[in-house]
């Protein structure tokens, strides 16, 4: 089967994973991420901003060069919240078809539903966790939306949903001050709680025993909680975060100006201005989990939708 590539283009970042399939098992060759903020202003204007499209094109051109160098044979690119919402999304898709066609004729970004996004994230996130810890609830906190999916290690899904609640969306819509004001935080909490009420109605959160956090907000929180001097995926993957300690950390982040956050080497410059909103989302998710279950912590996974996409490419067409 050779080398496969997965690309995830979300509201805040675009990420690439290249894996080689050896004896039916994927082996990671290259994994990278760039902050492009494709969702810049989408919530307010309904369109992808020209500067955001230009940043995304530049990043994707770089990824195509990497894929050529690594001799990738097949690629799948998924586009999530920002492109689902944009009126001028065809400009984005034409650009991806032009560039990805250099790797695989006919390839272009796909808009996937929140439910498929949740399922692919689930497959990747639980891959390295023992089945003895199921049922799992995987929480993929993105820039524009957050996915919740409950299921077993074998991939049997009990329920999933996607809600319009992400760190970029909340920063642009509600938490505009730097740092956010107490009143902005309260409005944000009300907004988050309304959406989490929908989650508990649609997804059997109370059945889960292990809660798995994936994507940039969760992985950055793990790096901060561990006091890492640099972002080290091997230290973050499968780490565990206690809710009580996490409340202290997230309170501190929400109260800190973005310029000061950005001075920490484990916080990407493109995440410094939105991790305050992400912290408030995480706090409300913790409160929901404690209302519904006896769980008192998160397992953090560096594997996520990219790994699920690679798995999907391995399946017969």
Describe this structure in words.
β2 (13-22) and β3 form a beta hairpin. The chain is α/β, with parallel strands linked by helices. α6 (167-173) packs across α12 (275-292), α7 packs across α12 and α10 (243-254) packs antiparallel against α12. The chain has a six-stranded mixed beta sheet, with helices on both faces. It is built from 13 helices and eleven strands.
List the helices and strands and how they pair.
Elements: E1 3-9, E2 13-22, E3 25-35, H1 42-45, H2 50-69, E4 74-79, H3 81-85, H4 89-100, E5 110-111, H5 114-125, E6 136-141, E7 146-151, E8 157-163, H6 167-173, H7 182-202, E9 210-214, H8 216-225, H9 233-236, E10 239-242, H10 243-254, H11 258-261, H12 275-292, E11 297-301, H13 305-314
Parallel strand pairs: 1-4, 4-5, 6-9, 9-11
Antiparallel strand pairs: 1-2, 2-3, 6-7, 7-8, 10-11
Helix pairs in contact: 2-4, 5-13, 6-12, 7-12, 10-12
Mean pLDDT: 91
* CATH homologous superfamily grouping of the largest domain: Exopolyphosphatase. Domain 2
CATH architecture designation of the largest domain: 2-Layer Sandwich
Q: Which residue ranges are poorly predicted, with pLDDT under 50 across at least 5 consecutive positions?
A: none
Gyration radius, to the nearest Å? 18 Å
Question: What string gives the helices and strands in order?
Answer: EEEHHEHHEHEEEHHEHHEHHHEH
Alpha-carbon distance between the two ends: 13 Å
Q: Give the CATH level 1 class of the largest domain.
A: Alpha Beta
Percent range of helical residues: 40-55%
Overall shape: globular
CATH fold-level label of the largest domain? Nucleotidyltransferase, domain 5
Tally of strands: 11
Please give the count of helices. 13
The helix/strand class is: alpha/beta
Q: What fraction of residues sit in β-strands?
A: 15-25%
**Strand order of the main beta sheet, please?**
8-7-6-9-11-10
Largest sheet: 6 strands, mixed
Domain unit count: 2
């Amino acid at each position: 089967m050779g080398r496969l590539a997965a690309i995830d283009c979300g509201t805040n970042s675009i990420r690439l994973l290249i894996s080689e399939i050896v004896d039916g098992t994927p082996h990671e060759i290259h994994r990278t991420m760039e902050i492009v903020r494709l969702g810049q202003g989408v919530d307010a204007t309904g369109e992808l901003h020209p500067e955001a499209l230009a940043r995304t094109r530049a990043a994707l051109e770089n990824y195509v060069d990497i894929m050529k160098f690594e001799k990738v044979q097949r690629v799948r690119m998924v586009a999530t919240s920002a492109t689902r919402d944009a009126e001028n999304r065809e400009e984005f898709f034409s650009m991806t078809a032009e560039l990805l066609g250099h790797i695989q004729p006919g390839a272009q970004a796909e808009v996937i539903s929140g439910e498929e996004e949740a399922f692919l994230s689930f497959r990747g996130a639980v891959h390295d966790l023992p089945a003895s810890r199921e049922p799992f609830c995987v929480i993929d906190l993105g820039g524009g939306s957050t996915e919740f999916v409950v299921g077993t290690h074998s991939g049997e899904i009990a329920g999933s949903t996607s809600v319009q609640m992400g760190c970029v969306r909340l920063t642009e819509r509600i938490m505009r001050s730097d740092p956010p004001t107490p009143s902005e935080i309260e409005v944000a909490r009300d907004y988050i709680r309304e959406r989490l009420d929908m989650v508990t109605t649609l997804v059997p959160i109370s059945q889960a025993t292990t809660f798995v956090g994936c994507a940039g907000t969760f992985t950055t929180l793990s790096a901060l909680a561990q006091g890492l001097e640099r972002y080290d995926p091997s230290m973050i993957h499968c780490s565990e975060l206690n809710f009580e300690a996490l409340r202290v950390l997230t309170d501190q982040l929400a109260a800190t100006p973005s310029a000061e956050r950005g001075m920490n080497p484990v916080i990407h410059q493109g995440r410094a201005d939105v991790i305050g909103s992400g912290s408030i989302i995480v706090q409300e998710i913790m409160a929901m989990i404690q209302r519904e279950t006896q769980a008192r912590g998160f397992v953090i996974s560096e594997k996520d939708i990219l790994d699920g996409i690679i798995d999907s490419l391995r399946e017969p067409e």
